[in-house]
Design goal:
Blueprint: H1 2-8, H2 11-14, H3 18-32, H4 35-43, H5 50-72, E1 78-80, H6 84-96, H7 100-119, H8 122-128, H9 132-153, E2 157-160, E3 164-167, H10 172-189, H11 195-211, H12 242-267, H13 279-296, E4 301-303, H14 307-312, H15 318-328, H16 331-334, H17 343-357, H18 369-384, H19 388-405, H20 414-428
Amino acid sequence: MKERIANYFEFERNETNFKTEILAGITTFLATAYIIIVNPQILAQSGLSFNAVVTATIIVTFFSSAMMGLYAKNPIVLAPGMGINAFFTYSIVLGMGVSPYVALGAIFWSGVFFLLMSIFNIREIIVKAIPRNLRLSIATGIGFFIALIGLINGGVVVDNPATLISAAKLDANVALFFVSLLFIAILSYYKIGGALVIGILFSAFGFHFLNDVKVGATLISSPDFSLLGKLDFTNSLAPGLIHVIFSLIFTDLFDSLSTFVAVSEAGNLKDSNGEPRNLKKSLLVDSMATLISGLFGTSSATSYIESGAGISQGGRSGLVALIAGFLFLPFLFLSPALSLFPSFSTAPVLVFVGLLMSRSITMINFKDLDEALPAFLSMMLIPLTYSIGQGIIWGFLSYTVLKIVLGKRNEVSLGLIIIDIFCLLSLLMK
């Protein structure tokens, strides 16, 4: 059995082994597990049941990640996306007054559209049209973004009304953050197996010790399937909501494409042509994840950039996604146990992963202005706007304009023009 699993996931070709893949799967799970609590917290404000969204989040994450591992054989976890859940609650439901069940219908139809795009290779064409310099800058920008999230979760960076953000005062938690980060770096330098997992456990234990965190009286809960099939198929297709579906499509499109590009660059998960590995299958899984999200009762699932944590641990095969997906299942009954791992516990790991992903910056062409400016915009806008989509949009648009104006029209492909159209539509629909 062990040999069959190794052959199926092509361990030899991927230069990996069971121990590495298992540790990577655990690392990826720990880096993404926060979504079990955070997603319901956001969607509950739209009127959906908190407990039902917890169940939907776990089920969608499990099925989507298992499909990615078994079918696309990529070490990428899928879960309801941050940003999309906020758009669902604050823009569609609270902002426009749309019923949350109608909004779930819009999620479903955006998944159908995505599925058609994937079947007819439109999304694959778009990915392959992204210039190498922009791919590298997107990977770097997302690395900065992940590091910023880690610094915020670790309490190192705080908001400031005068300067927007500033450094926090040195206290025990800030000191623990840097000790944990250096501990992870030292373990990684000496190639200690499970360095990121050890780092998460170390920072979690330290945080509990310093802050006397209160754990709930019970660590057991029951799954709630009350949102299954409660989406409104018909009213979500009303003419006044078509732009909502397109907004969901554009947001999900840029999030998923940027994740595939960034993860493939960071982990060298590319085919013989230098394109993201098993791209068509991965995009099919991503579209199915969006579709079933609406059916189960949560906002769109998408490929998670935190998958880079497992890849940084050495994970290279679909077994990583499969293991991480299975680790979500017990929390159908044990979701209160996640309080043992506060967001602080993964903060140093996110910064370390951000470091690893941002190494792509050394390969970016900064000599030519028409290459340098779009790359710079992407890298800066992704973390500073707290939006992967904004960095991508302005990077693409500036790249195309500069190439055309400077007489390099032949470097602008049809696929890039399609991306630019999506970018413009996304800006106009905000």
